[in-house]
Amino acid sequence: MSQFIDVHTGMKNLTVQDLKREHDQDTALEREYGVHFIKAWGDPASGKVFCLSEGPNKQAVLEVHRKAGHPTDEIYEVPLSVE
Amino acid sequence: MSQFIDVHTGMKNLTVQDLKREHDQDTALEREYGVHFIKAWGDPASGKVFCLSEGPNKQAVLEVHRKAGHPTDEIYEVPLSVE
Question: What is the chain A residue with the closest CA to B78?
Answer without folding.
Answer: A43
